[in-house]
From TrEMBL:
Entry keyword annotation includes Ion transport: no
All copies of domain Acyl-CoA oxidase/dehydrogenase middle, residue ranges: 139-249
Boundaries of every Acyl-CoA dehydrogenase/oxidase N-terminal domain copy: 26-135
Top-tier EC class: oxidoreductase
Reaction catalysis annotation: glutaryl-CoA + oxidized [electron-transfer flavoprotein] + 2 H(+) = (2E)-butenoyl-CoA + reduced [electron-transfer flavoprotein] + CO2
Residue span(s) of domain Acyl-CoA dehydrogenase/oxidase C-terminal: 269-408
Designated name of the protein: glutaryl-CoA dehydrogenase (ETF)
This enzyme's EC code(s): 1.3.8.6
Originating species: Nesterenkonia halobia
Biochemical pathway: Amino-acid metabolism; tryptophan metabolism; Amino-acid metabolism; lysine degradation
Annotated keywords: FAD, Flavoprotein, Oxidoreductase, Transit peptide
InterPro entries found in the cross-reference section: Acyl-CoA_DH_CS, Acyl-CoA_Oxase/DH_mid-dom, Acyl-CoA_Oxase/DH_mid-dom_sf, AcylCo_DH-like_C, AcylCo_DH/oxidase_C, AcylCoA_DH/ox_N, AcylCoA_DH/ox_N_sf, AcylCoA_DH/oxidase_NM_dom_sf
C-alpha cells in the first residue's frame, strides 16, 4: 500500500507481503489521488494546524472534488465507489492526520449515511447532492455528556406538537457541529408519536420506558440550536468537536428520518464509520514507521546510522509486521464488505485491533526519533495523540471487546 513518499510505480518499503499486488489498477489510482492530495495540501501545514488547533475548512471543497464526501454511497451525486476504495482513501487521509480523515467520516459515514440509509426519498434528494458537493456540511448528534458507550441512556427527547417536532437536550463530542449546516440528531420519542411517523413496514421498537430512539434532520440555524467547540484538547487538535444544546428546537413534521428502526439506526451509521477507522488507523501507523525509518537512515550515532543497530532494526521489524497484519485485516474487511458478507462483529475486530496496534506503533516509532520526536516537526507523537481519540470514539476498546466476546460465547456481558 503505497506511501505518499514513494513513487506509485515502486514497492513501498513497508509492504513486506506485496499487498500492492492485491489491488486493482482502479483501486491504486484512486488511492494515489488521495495520497497526492495529502502530500500537497496536508503534510506541509499539518504541524502548524495541529499546534494552533485549527481545522483547515478551506480543504473541504477540494475533498468534495476528490469525491470523498459520501464516497461509498450510491446515487444522489455520491461517488458510488467500492468499500475497498473508500478504505484505501481513509488510510491515505489519516497518514496525513486523523482529524482530516474524521471530516470525511462525519460528513459521509455518519451524517450522509444516516439520510441515505434511513431517510425518505425527498430527504435524500434535498440533502445528499449538496452534501456530496461539499456545499452543505453535516454533523451527527448521538453522544451525550452522560451517554457515551450506552446511547440507549440518552436524555435528549423529542415530542410531537401539531405539525412540528420539538427537541430538547444536549450532545457532546459532536464533530463539525459548530460549522455544520445540518445536524442529524438522535432523540427519544414517545412510542405513539414514533409509530405515527413510521413509513411502511419499518417499525421501531419501544424500550422499557415506552420511548424509542429516532433520528431528525435539523438545520443548525433553527432557533434554539446552539453548538460550541470543545477547547483545551490534547488530541485531534486539527479537528473540531463540539457541545450541542437543543433548547426546544422546533422542526417540521417531515424532519424525522422515517425509516430509522430504533437504536439500530445510529448503529448502522456507526458501523460505516468504524469500518473507515480500521483502515485509517493503519495510515497513521504506516506514516509513523516511514518517518522513523527516514530519520534513522539519516541520523548518526557513534559514527554509524541508527539503522545499522540491531535494536533499531528490531523496532522497525516489529512495527512493520504489526502494520502488515493490520493492513491485511483491513483488506479482508473491504473485500467482504464489497461482497456483502461483512458482519458487525468483524468490524469490531478491525476497529479494536487496528486502533490498538496503531497507537503502539506510533509510540514505538517516536522512540527511534529520540527527543526530537516530541516536536511537531515529526509526525509519530502527533499520530499517537490523535489515536487516543480514535481509539475511544465510535466504540471504546471495552465496547468492541464485549461485542467480540458475545460473538465467541453467545453471552452478552454489557450489563
Amino acid at each position: 500500500m503505497t506511501t505518499a513518499h514513494t513513487p506509485a510505480t515502486s514497492t513501498p518499503t513497508t509492504d513486506l507481503m506485496e499487498i500492492e499486488s492485491q489491488l486493482s489498477a482502479e483501486e491504486v489510482s484512486g488511492r494515489d489521488r488521495v495520497a497526492d492530495f495529502v502530500d500537497r495540501r496536508i503534510r506541509p501545514h499539518i504541524a502548524r494546524w495541529y499546534e494552533d488547533a485549527v481545522l483547515p475548512t478551506e480543504l473541504f471543497s477540494e475533498m468534495a472534488q476528490l469525491g470523498l464526501f459520501g464516497m461509498h454511497l450510491t446515487g444522489y451525486g455520491c461517488g458510488g465507489r467500492s468499500a475497498t476504495e473508500y478504505g484505501l482513501a481513509m488510510q491515505e487521509l489519516e497518514a496525513g492526520d486523523s482529524g482530516i480523515r474524521t471530516v470525511v467520516s462525519v460528513q459521509g459515514s455518519l451524517a450522509m449515511s444516516a439520510i441515505h440509509k434511513h431517510g425518505s426519498e425527498p430527504q435524500k434528494q434535498r440533502w445528499l447532492p449538496p452534501m456530496a458537493a461539499g456545499e452543505i456540511i453535516g454533523c451527527f448528534g448521538l453522544t451525550e455528556p452522560t451517554a457515551g458507550s450506552d446511547p440507549g441512556g440518552m436524555a435528549t427527547v423529542a415530542w410531537r406538537e401539531g405539525d412540528e417536532w420539538v427537541l430538547r437536550g444536549q450532545k457532546r463530542w459532536i464533530g463539525l457541529a459548530s460549522i455544520a449546516d445540518v445536524a442529524i440528531i438522535w432523540a427519544k420519542v414517545p412510542f405513539a408519536d414514533s409509530e405515527a411517523a413510521v413509513e411502511g413496514e419499518h417499525r421501531a421498537r419501544a424500550d422499557s420506558a415506552g420511548d424509542v430512539v429516532r433520528g431528525f434532520i435539523v438545520s443548525t440555524d433553527t432557533p434554539g440550536f446552539g453548538a460550541a467547540p470543545i477547547e483545551g484538547k490534547l488530541s485531534m487538535r486539527a479537528s473540531l468537536q463540539c457541545d450541542i444544546d437543543l433548547d426546544n428546537v422546533r422542526v417540521p413534521a417531515d424532519s424525522i428520518l422515517p425509516q430509522s428502526p430504533g437504536l439500530r439506526g445510529p448503529f448502522d451509521c456507526l458501523s460505516e464509520a468504524r469500518y473507515g477507522i480500521a483502515w485509517g488507523a493503519m495510515g497513521a501507523a504506516r506514516d509513523s514507521i516511514e518517518a522513523a525509518l527516514a530519520y534513522a537512515t539519516e541520523r548518526r550515532q557513534f559514527d554509524r546510522p541508527l539503522t545499522g543497530y540491531q535494536l533499531t532494526q528490531k523496532k522497525l521489524t516489529d512495527m512493520t509486521l504489526e502494520l502488515t497484519k493490520g493492513q491485511l485485516l483491513s483488506l479482508q474487511m473491504g473485500r467482504m464488505k464489497d461482497a456483502g458478507t461483512l458482519q458487525s462483529h468483524m468490524i469490531s475486530v478491525g476497529k479494536l485491533n487496528n486502533c490498538r496496534t496503531a497507537i503502539d506503533i506510533c509510540r514505538e516509532a517516536r522512540t527511534i526519533l529520540g527527543g526530537n520526536g516530541i516536536t511537531g516537526q515529526h509526525a509519530p507523537l502527533r499520530h499517537a495523540n490523535n489515536l487516543e481519540s480514535v481509539r475511544t470514539y465510535e466504540g471504546t476498546d471495552e465496547v468492541h471487546t464485549l461485542i467480540i466476546g458475545k460473538r465467541l460465547t453467545g453471552e452478552s456481558a454489557f450489563r
